[in-house]
């Protein structure tokens, strides 16, 4: 979208068949578009672990950013406030805060490579890994991504790209030791379907 206003118009137009619970502007304005207890149509055909209908099990937050520039400080401030409230109301642990690029990696890349996941993690609002590198092993990496929540039916290179958007930004090329170490760490600490049902 070219602007927050354009995004709002799209999200509020029934003909587009897309919606979100919240839209946050660059200036930090919070637009509540769909009540949290109602379903919004933000993830499309997404999957995270055992959850095959992400829209029915999540709160969708859209951010006004084209995806290739840093996120404005007021927007990030507002996101921290909104996210903390959602997590408290719905008992969402930090590891269940995911991106559209996580649950629908074949179709979505948002919030994109410039999003500050580390900032959210410092506030206990998401998780990232800074684990030590481990020699790459494609089969173990694939199993780790599935354990974290990434759809095993998605092509390996697409899953790797989605994982890197969040956990190894800027990395290119084949699977590397940083990817491997971080995936194994996250799979060990936060297996997606361990004792929880929901996204």
Account of the 3D structure:
The relative contact order is 0.14. The chain contains 7 helices and 3 strands. 36% of the residues lie in helices and 5% in strands. By secondary structure, the chain is mostly helical. It has a 3-stranded mixed sheet, with helices on both faces. Helix 5 runs parallel beside helix 7. The model has no long low-confidence stretch (mean pLDDT 93). It folds into 2 domains: 1-128, 3-Layer(aba) Sandwich (Lysozyme-like); 129-192. Strand 1 and strand 2 form a beta hairpin. It has helices spanning 4-11, 73-90, 100-103, 117-122, 138-148, 156-167, 177-189; strands at residues 22-24, 30-32, 61-63.
Secondary structure elements and pairings:
Layout: H1 4-11, E1 22-24, E2 30-32, E3 61-63, H2 73-90, H3 100-103, H4 117-122, H5 138-148, H6 156-167, H7 177-189
Parallel strand pairs: 1-3
Antiparallel strand pairs: 1-2
Helix pairs in contact: 5-7
């Amino acid at each position: 979208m070219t602007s927050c206003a354009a995004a709002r118009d799209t999200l509020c137009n029934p003909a587009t068949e897309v919606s979100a619970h919240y839209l946050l502007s660059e200036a930090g304005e919070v637009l509540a578009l769909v009540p949290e207890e109602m379903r919004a149509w933000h993830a499309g055909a997404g999957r995270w672990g055992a959850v095959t209908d992400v829209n029915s099990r999540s709160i969708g937050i859209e951010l006004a950013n084209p995806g290739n520039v840093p996120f404005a400080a007021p927007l990030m401030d507002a996101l921290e406030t909104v996210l903390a409230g959602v997590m408290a109301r719905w008992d969402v642990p930090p590891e269940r805060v995911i991106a559209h690029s996580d649950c629908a990696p074949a179709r979505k890349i948002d919030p994109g490579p410039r999003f500050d996941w580390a900032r959210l993690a410092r506030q206990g609002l998401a998780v990232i890994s800074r684990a030590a590198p481990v020699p790459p092993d494609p089969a173990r990496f694939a199993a780790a991504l599935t354990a974290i929540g990434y759809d095993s039916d998605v092509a390996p290179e697409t899953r790797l790209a989605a994982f890197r958007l969040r956990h190894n930004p800027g990395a290119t090329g084949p699977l590397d030791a940083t990817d491997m170490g971080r995936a194994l760490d996250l799979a060990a600490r936060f297996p997606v379907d361990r004792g929880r049902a929901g996204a």
